[in-house]
Amino acid sequence: xxxxxxxxxxxxxxxxxxxxxINSQKNKINTILSINTNPDEFxxxxxxxxxxxxxxxxxxxxxxxVKDKIKFEVEQILLNCQNRKVIxxxxxxxxxxxxxxxxxxxxxxxxxxxxxxITSKLPLIIHQRNSENEIIEVIKSYLNSYDLSIVFHxxxxxxKLFDFCMDxxxxxxxxxxxxxxxxxELRNTVKELNKDFLLIETDSPxxxxxxxxxxxxxxxxxxxxYEYLSLFYDISLDDLIKITDNxxxxxFSKAKRYSDFE
Length: 262
Hints:
- It is a single chain.
- The protein is built from ten helices and eight strands.
- By secondary structure, it is of the alpha/beta class.
- The protein has a single domain, classed as Alpha-Beta Barrel (TIM Barrel), CATH 3.20.20.
- The radius of gyration is 17 Å and the shape is globular.
């Protein structure tokens, strides 16, 4: 199994990183992508995961961390993406839930991520909150000229966003939210998902799945999401693992398959 999106450098995980990695291996997690959200933390984040061969990292600036005077240029992104461990760009996007104060700057930095993704050919990891229509419009402005590789992480979007993703072969990553009792609208939205564009994530340390809801999340808990989705989509667990493994390595093509390390 693969955890396609977590935050290993967040305090509740970082302080127990060795134990959490061991737990992941015991539960047959063979690849983890740890998402960077602040460039000022990138070097420490990279050092944290550098010795774990099957753990990768992204490079990006989360829209929640965007402030008016901040600089985050395309060249800076491309330079850091040369590291062998960096397999994706983001997470990025637009977040108008927490703040609309720096809207213009959020747009600017989101577009810098997109341009770096186009140049580097590394996929874009998108976060959206209260910003579906705006994100769709930004992405549409590039689609006539470029093929974009995109995953919408922790998908909780509307049918409109879901159809936009399916129409453009964008990936959808489902988190522990899919297991929540109150997630009927999400389940109805994604029930017809093309499984060739499905990824699974924990978003650790957030959103622990049922039956662990309310606890600090970690990558090993992803097994509960896989088991739930196996039943939800009426696919054997082995087949679901194979499908999502292949999807991950197709999108994040810079990553080496776990078998390459054996």
